[in-house]
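Listing S7. Sequence submitted for prediction.
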Amino acid sequence: MTTIRRLPLGPIQTNCYIVRKGNAALIIDPSDEPAKITQALEQSNVRPIAILLTHAHFDHIGALQAMVDKYSIPVYLHKAEEKWLSDPMKNGSGKYAELPNVEVAVEITPVSEGKLTLEGFEIDVLETPGHSPGSVSYSFKEHGFVVSGDVLFRGSIGRTDLIGGDLKLLMQSITRKLVELPEDTVVYSGHGEETTIQQELDTNPFLNGF
C-alpha cells in the first residue's frame, strides 16, 4: 500500500510530502523545518530512500541540505535547475531581505520525462515547465495521484513572473500533461489543499472552457 502525507512548512506554508510504501519513503520537496520532517518520518517508522524535487525555488528546498546531511540519500531534480540550488537570486531567496539566502551544496541525479523506479516506487516523471524551466510533476498513476509542485493548484495555477516563467508554456504543461491524466487523479500541489483533475476542469477559472 502506498500512502502520502502532506506537511505544510516554513514561512509560506509550502507543502512537503512523504510518500510511503512499506517501510520505505520518498521525501518530495523538503520545504523547511527539517526537524518536523524528521519527526514525521520517525513517527511513521519509515526509511527515507530519496528526495524528489518538483523544482528549485527556495521555499521547496529550505530543508534539503539538512535532509541530505542527515540521511545521505540521492536528490532528483531536472538538470535545468541544478545551479539554482546554490544561487539565491535564481532560487528566489535573494529577493527577500527578511529571509536568509538559501544555498544548497548537494549532488543531484537529473530527471526528465519518463519512468523512474525507486525500490518499488513506480513514478512517471512529467516535464511541466512554465512556473520555472525545470518544473516536473511526479505521477503515481497506479495509486491515482500526482504531485504537481507549483504548476496546478486548487482553483489556480502557478505564477509565471519569476525567472524562466512562461505563461503559455505553463498552460501547455497543464493541458497536455496534467489534464491528460485520469479525471479522478488527486493533485497534490506545492501550496494549499489537494484537488482532482475533474474538479479543476469544472471549477478552475484558468481552465474554463477547456
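Caption to Listing S7: primary sequence and predicted C-alpha cells for the chain studied. The longest strand covers residues 2-9. Residues 167-178 form the longest helix (12 residues).
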